[in-house]
Amino acid sequence: MWLFMTDASALKNSSFSPAGLPVEQGAEPTFGASEAGFVAAVERRLREALLLGEDADSAGELLSEASTHLTLADAAKRARPRLLWYFARALSEGDLFSDGPGAQEEFAALVDFAVVAELIHTASLMHDDVLDEATLRRGLPSVNANWGNCIAVLGGDAMLVKGLQMLEPYGMNFMSLGLKVVGQMTHSLVLEVQSRAQTDVTEETWHAIADGKTGILFGWCGSTPAMRAGKSDIAERLHRCGHHLGVAFQLADDLKDLTGADVGKHRFTDIRTRTPAYPLVWAMNASPETRARFEELWASEEISEDDVESAGQQLLESGALEATQAALRLEIDSALEALGEYATRPGGREIAGFAMSLRGFL
Amino acid sequence: MWLFMTDASALKNSSFSPAGLPVEQGAEPTFGASEAGFVAAVERRLREALLLGEDADSAGELLSEASTHLTLADAAKRARPRLLWYFARALSEGDLFSDGPGAQEEFAALVDFAVVAELIHTASLMHDDVLDEATLRRGLPSVNANWGNCIAVLGGDAMLVKGLQMLEPYGMNFMSLGLKVVGQMTHSLVLEVQSRAQTDVTEETWHAIADGKTGILFGWCGSTPAMRAGKSDIAERLHRCGHHLGVAFQLADDLKDLTGADVGKHRFTDIRTRTPAYPLVWAMNASPETRARFEELWASEEISEDDVESAGQQLLESGALEATQAALRLEIDSALEALGEYATRPGGREIAGFAMSLRGFL
């Protein structure tokens, strides 16, 4: 429901927020009762998971405090839980989650999966902020800023372990996939570290980074409900759908930075922070002059606002905006193609709506 | 065999090295052919595991390089693989690992478990060095010193994931225990961070830290072969045996720092680095004067060598040496009690021999 908007303001007003960026505080979206109920159940279970009950010594309290601070921040929009919910609804025959035999058990399983997704996602944010030396996250001081790098690293580790432990009751297939997700996210964070301030990043590397940043966990939100529903034949397809949505999401975010559509955030932040976002990667590969310009800019100690603005204008004139729009279109089309006939079902409609809403950026 | 020595030089000349401390380079111990063969097989498999074949992009190469640097360092003595080997031999009826049906499969499983132990252990060293800002490890530059904190954090994460993935073929019981080990190690690292330079650490907290540092993974080396052998009734007992050995190992290390028995390492390093090792924890809890002394010492910016020496002498006069010896004796006795009748078997004899060798420090 809340995603079914096609104008450019959809993302800003929706609960979807790009991984790793401060969330716009817009009007609260209205949810159908059951979706809101699901998210509330996820948040209750998240709080329980973070209490780390049996380890309630000083270390347990500290870990709990730091991880609750970030995980239960008001600005967390639960994009991954909602996506899981939509996929599960699209997969269910009739309304699996409100009645019928086994409905309660399936609801509980879905809540668990959503909690796992949030734990893994939040752990990656915690580690990411250490790598970036970020001081703000979800409108609050980052965990590393408040408790130091040690606790941010160990807190992330603890959350990953907790997330994986929650998969134990569901069997080795689910565990195996969860480990694969974490491994790939770690791997792509290394690529991101290696790419910082680099002007020779290929589109392939950009994609590998985007895969780990949002793609694989969004994909997991598609494949996991399919596996749980015993529909392993379409798990790969829905994974692909989620994955393309995740990458599209990154691209929309890169576009917003280029157009300044993100209210409350400075334009051209990627240039300022020497982040090889898609438009920059495309432009540097398309033109040796642009690459030379950024080589010089990113090699300098300080980057003035005048330099940022003029490099940004050069970027816009290079055709990077149009190229990013084309890449975004491709991801949206691929996501919709993978979604196929599910797009017409409850749940599937919301997923399609989300994909369509990203078209607002084209 | 190599552990079956009862004098104080046993540890120095043996392959056992305290987790997290530079290893003494003594005479190479002689191993029975099969133990050496096992360790060689473990190292081959470790190298394979670290190659991260399918992810052979720049990030994969970097992760592989950094993790191989530390994991396959010459100074790594494979304490945990050897312990696993001893426990497995003690458990086997006849010589399970050289002939008989299924022997090859059991050997391969044991190699896998040993690799898992080394991956988890090495990952914890990598993260530990980030927390301690250590520059040396196993006689080489630490991973954080060579490649930076980011790669040390992510490299540790990648190795943990890889280690857990290697448990997948063995079923959920093994996976579950592996996750528990990683979770407890993380938890106790938090306690260690919290305890640094603190003068109010309780003996209970010291034990919780030692559990995570060596106890739980040493314990795992006892319980895992028992589980694999289908002898779950004694898994808990052998876990306890390994666990006490691990804690005894820490205590022997603390004693060496107090007596200066560790050639090539400065005496009283724990005082210098504000580490609440067992003798210090005991002394500070036994005497308010000693606590006040260390409060003053550890609150100061710089600690002079004269201050270290005089605080060390005060510690020795406080009875901390004898108290640590008593704690060590208790751990050794508990380990031997848990080992029970296995102490007379091949493999069990080596474990008992290791425990006895630690008596050299009494």
Automatic annotation (TrEMBL), chains A, B:
Report any one BP term from Gene Ontology: isoprenoid biosynthetic process
Q: Which organism is it from?
A: Bradymonas sediminis
- Tell me what this protein is called: Polyprenyl synthetase family protein
User: Which coenzyme or cofactor does it need?
Assistant: Mg(2+)
Checking Pfam families in the record gives: polyprenyl_synt (PF00348)
Query: Does the record's keyword annotation contain S-adenosyl-L-methionine?
Result: no
The keyword Cell membrane belongs to this UniProt entry's keyword annotation: no
GO MF term list: metal ion binding; prenyltransferase activity
Q: Which family is this protein grouped under?
A: Belongs to the FPP/GGPP synthase family.
